[in-house]
Amino acid sequence: MSTTFYFVRHGEHDLVDRTLCGRMPGVVLNANGKEQARAAGRRLAALQPLRIFSSPLERARQTADIIAEETGCPLADAEALQEIDSGKWTGKAFEELHADRRWKDWNEARSVTRPPAGEMMVEVQARVVGYLERLRALHQSARLVLVSHSDVIKAAILFHIGMSLELFSRIEIAPGSISTLIIGDWGAKLVALNETGA
Fold this sequence. Notes:
Elements: E1 2-9, H1 31-45, E2 51-54, H2 58-71, E3 75-77, H3 94-97, H4 101-108, H5 121-138, E4 143-148, H6 150-160, E5 178-184, E6 187-195
Parallel strand pairs: 1-4, 2-3, 2-4
Antiparallel strand pairs: 1-5, 5-6
Helix pairs in contact: 1-2, 5-6
């Protein structure tokens, strides 16, 4: 038996591609982000998922709330889907980070580096992969929606397709996108990546 996971990145907000938001409070969807969430919800409704689990951050929970409206599925917060803790880099502009040597190191060697006072990517990967296994044990043969963040989704996908965390930049996870991963006792397969659109 296998479980199908639909990973949804939260919709767009006004700081996307400008600021490393991390776990900043108060980051909410803009109008385009809400429409991205609604489009994802419409597509997922046709697939009849069983439940939705969401990172507790506002932008993810807003996305999940809209998907729940579209699908009629029950929704629960999941701390394991929380954004990576970017530590002292939280809230900094990417333009500022590019001048920091540690930022370069972090993006070249994700598996062995840590943001200052933050969370290692391998720690993110361990928490999300462990959570998927717990969900799989509880919901065999089910379709589940997981609303999370780009790096968290990348960490899960890279693990299940047997690729190094160092290759994280080769995967694009756009706001509002859906990526589909099927996991069974036999292993895992990625059947869709970064799907967007109405």
